[in-house]
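Input chain follows. Return structure tokens only.
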Amino acid sequence: MRHKVRVIALQVLFQRDLRNISVREVLKYFKIPEGWDQQDNHRMPPDSQDRPVIRKEQQQDDRAFFLQLIRGVEEHREEIDRVISSFNVEWPLFRMPTVDRNILRLAVFEILYVPEISVGVTINEAVELAKKYSTEDSGKFVNGVLGKLVRTRESDKVTMLFPGTGRAMKTNG
């Protein structure tokens, strides 16, 4: 289910970037999945009163993850963009396709700020999103940028600690 959450988060961030408005503004007109906008949702199938179609806990987990992603990218966007730029010197951020830029933002946010998700899962999801919503070359591009970031993070040549993440990163600037 987290894959679907990432897809929806990507759509919101894409709109935010394209229209140059806040996530809050995008959410005013963006249709999020049923139940995510409610704290207490008990949808029952028509033939049963004791078995939910979608578990309330799963909806709340998905909603919380969705909000963590979109709010986190928005809150840390400046730092995230610096990281992307430092590991991708060939393509300035503004020249990158909007989809690729926002896939990278999601992935870098997860790598830096969501330690409970494995880096491998994050990279795989980002590459799959790029292949599906951009191009085959975009999948390779995203993999390359994220691979550089992870290799640098794991090396001994770390030079900068990103505030609030507890994670160190080497940067080019």
